[in-house]
Here is the input.
Amino acid sequence: MNKRKKQYNVDSVVRTEDNEKQLNALVHSTFKTASGKKVLSYLKSITVNTAHGVGVDPTSLMHIEGQRWIVGLLEQRFNDHLDGKLHEE
Here is the structure.
C-alpha cells in the first residue's frame, strides 16, 4: 500500500511537518521579544483593528483584507509554535 506522507499548512502552501515547525519557530523567535510584540501590536493596529466605512472601494478593500490576512497568519504561526500545533491538509 502506498502511504502518502502527511503535509501541513496554515497558509495554503503545502509543506512538510519539519518546514512548518521551522517557520512557526522563526515567526515566534521574531515576535517573542518586547520589541517584536510592539511591532506585531502596531501591525494589528493598522490592519486587524482598523474599521473601514461603507465608502471603501473594492480594490482598496481587497488590499486591506490581504494585509489583515498576513498579520493574522503571523499571529497564527506564533501561537501554533507555542501550542506545538500543526494544520494537516
